[in-house]
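Table S7 (text form). Paired inputs.
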Amino acid sequence: MTDTPLKLFNSLTREIEIFTPVHPGEARVYSCGPTVYNYQHIGNMRAYVFSDTLGRVLRWKGYDLTHVINITDVGHLTSDADEGEDKMEKMAAKEGRSAWDIAKFYQEDFERDLARLNITGKQHPRATEYVEPMIEWGKRIADKHCYELDSGLYFDVSTIEDYGKLARAVTEEGEGRIERLEGKRNAADFAIWRKTPEGETRQMEWDSPWGKGAPGWHLECSVMGEALLGFPFDIHTGGIDHREIHHPNEIAQNQAYCCTGGLGKAENSGARIWMHNNFLVERSGKMSKSSGEFLRLQLLVDKGYHPLAYRMMCLQAHYRSELEFSWDGLGAALTRLKRMVMAVGRWKALQEERHAADWHADSWERHPKTREPVERFRDAVSDDLNTAEALTAFEDVLSLKKIDPDCVLSAMSEMDKVLGLDLENLSREDLRIRPKSAEITEAEIEAELFRRKEAKIAKDYATSDAIRESLAAKGVEVMDGDPLGWEWNLA
C-alpha cells in the first residue's frame, strides 16, 4: 500500500502543508499543557485528544515521535492577557495549602484524565523545573529586546519582525484583551520576569538579575520547547485561544533568542507548523466553573458515561471545527462506541470458531475487502486529521460480511492505533458505568431481570410489568427490543 503524504493546516501560514520532518524519520511535537491550579474542564481535554490523535498519526506513519506536554505550575496570571494574580498562588490561598501541593494534586488528576482518555506516552515537564534556564534565556535577550519597570522585565514587541502574525493582529494596540499597563512601551508588551512586590512574599519566587520574583507565563514554553526538542522542531499545538496572545508572545521570544528574522520563514517561529484545535462549546451555560457543576471528565463518569465516549465525541468532529457539547450528543457517541464494541466481539467469537477448525489466518493487507477501507481511512487521517471520515471507513470494515475474521480484526487493530478507542480490550461491561446517583447495584439489576425473564416465560405478565416498574423507580430503564441488546440502562 502506497502511503499518502500527511497534510496539515499551519495556523501561521493559514495554509495546508505537507508534513516534512526537520529531522528525517523523527517527529517532534510540543503541546501547551494545563495550568494545574484546578481540575481540567472537558473543553481543555479536547486539546489533548487532538494532539494525541496527531501523535498517533505520526507514529502510524512510521515517525519516531517525541511529544512534550508542559505543566504550568507557576507564572500564569488570572488573565491570559498578562494581568492579575498568579493562578497557583490564588488557589493556594483559597484552599489553605501550599502552591506546591496544589500543583501536585491537580497535575496527578490531569494525568489520570489523560489515562482514562487513552492518551499516553507524553513527557510532562513542569515549569518550576526550568526556572534557572528561563533566567538564562532572559539574560540572553534582555539587552536587545527587553526593558525594566518596577513590576518586572518586559519584552518590547517592536524589536522583532511580524509580531502578531499568528493572530493576524492588525491594530496598533494589538489584540483587544490586552490592558495597558503604566510604563509599557507598547500595549502588547509582556512580562519575561515578574518582581515580587515590595513587602510581599510569594510561595514560589526565585532570585534573578531583575529582582526576586517568578517568570512570566509565556517564557516556559519557549524554554522547554528549545531544551527538550531543539529549534526548530516540527509541530506546536494548542487551543485556538492560545493563537491570540500566548503563542504570538512565545514566537516573539523564540525569534529574539535565535536572532532570527521575520515569519516569512516559518522555522523562525521556533516550530515549522503551528496547529490549533477549536473550542468545545456548551450553550446552556449550566456547566461552567461558576455554576457549581463543573463539566469535567469525572462528572461524565458520575453520570454513567465511559470516558472513551468523550474521545469518540471529539473524533466525530474535525479538530478545527467548533464542537458543541450536549448530553444527547455524548449519549449518541456512547451508542456508536457500543456498536463498535459489539461488532468487534462478534468478529472475535467467529475468529475463535474458525481457529478451532484449523482456519488459515490472513491479514487485512491481503484481502481487497479490507484493504480498500483501510486505504480510505489512511487518506482521511492524512488529510489534516479528518477523523470523522476515518470513523466511517473504520465502521465499514466492522460491517463486512463473509470474510476471514482475522482480516477484519487485523484491520481494526491497525486503524485503532490512530483512533485510540482501545477496541481490542474494551468490553460491554466496561461501558456499563453505574451513575453515582444510582441506588441499585448491577448484581441486583441482573437478578431482577432474570426474575422478569422467568415471569415472561411463565406468561406471568403482571409480575413482569411490576418488576419493570420497580426497576424504573430506581432509575433503571429496561430496554426491551433494543437492537444493541444492551438489556438495561441506568438513567
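Next pair, protein 2 of 2.
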Amino acid sequence: MQNQNNASRRSFLKASGATLTAAAVGMPMIMTSRRAMAAGNLVVVSWGGNYRTAVEEALTKPFEKEFGVRVTLVDTPDLAKVKAQVMTRNVEWDVFDAVGPMAMTGSKNGYWEALDPAMFDQGDLIAPMTKEAVPFYGFTGGICWDNNRHPEGKHPETFADYFNVEKFPGQRTLRNRASETLEIALLADGVPADKIYPLDVDRAFRALNRIKPHIGKWVDQTPQTTSLVETGQVDFSYTYATRAKASLESGKPTGFSFKQNLIGLEYLVVLKNAPNKQNAMNYLKFAMRPDRQAALMDLHGNTPASKKAMDLMKPEVKKWLSNPANPNNVISNDAWWADHYDELTLKFKEWVLT
C-alpha cells in the first residue's frame, strides 16, 4: 500500500505543484494529532511485583480517573536504558522511579527535566528536593528468611552474620548492582556504620570475593528478593521491609531483621525531553500529595516523603518503618554515589561475570 501511495504521489507531483501546498497544510494536522495522542498518555517506570500493584492502586488508577490520562507501567528502572533514550533523542519513558544513586547520577549526567519547586510543599518533605528530583519515600533494606526452615538462632540478622557461611550455611542473594551491595560488604567486613563513606571499594570487593561462591542469585528483579526464599531456591536474601511485609501478609513464614538496615531515599524524576512532559509533572504533584503518599505507603510499608502523610497511615503499617537512629544502620550517601555510580557500576558488572 505504501509503494502505491508513493507512486501516486510521484505522478501527481509531475502533473501539478499543488501537492506541495497540500503537504504543507497536512503536516501541522499530523503533528497536532500526535500531540493530542501524547496528551492522553503517560509511561511510568516502576519496580514490579507487589510494588507495582501498590502503585497501580494508590497512584496510577486514581491518576487516570482524575486526569483522564492513560498510564502505562514499565517494570525495573534501568539507568543505561535512560542514557540510551536521552542520548539518541528517542525518549519513550516519562516518569522514572529511581533509588538515590540512580537519581543523583542521572542529574549529574543531564538525564532529567528540571522541576519547578512550587509544585511541591517544601516544608512537608522529609528530605530536600534537588533541581531535578523530588524525594518519593524512604526504604529499608535488610535480611529475610523462612521461619519454618530457619527458626530463631538459625538465621543471620546482621550483615556480618550474612557473610558468615560457617555459622549460617546456605545460598544467599545480593542485588545485581554496586549501590547497596558495596555498603553491605563493608558492613559485613567490620566497617562501622558511621565510617562507611567514602566507600573503601577495594576492601568491599575483597569481602565480596569471599561470599561470591555462596550467592545463588544476583537479583535484578526486586520481587525475586523474597520469592526465591519462599520457593526454597535460596536460604537467605537481602530484601526490603516492604517485600517482607507483603510476603508475610500473603501467608508465607517470612522473617525480616531490623537489627541492621540500609536506609535509602527513592526519588521521582522526569526524563529529559519526555514525550508526555506535562502529564509527567502532573503525576509527580499527584504522587506527592499527602493522601496519595499515605495510600501508597499503607500498601507497601515504606516511609512517606510527606510528613503529613504519616498521620494518615495505618498504625499496623508504621511498625515496618526503620529507625534511622539505630547506630548499626547506614543511610545511603547519594551525593557520594553521584560521583562514582557509572564507574563502579561497570566495575561491578565486570566482576560479577568473572
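The two ends are 52 Å apart (CA to CA).
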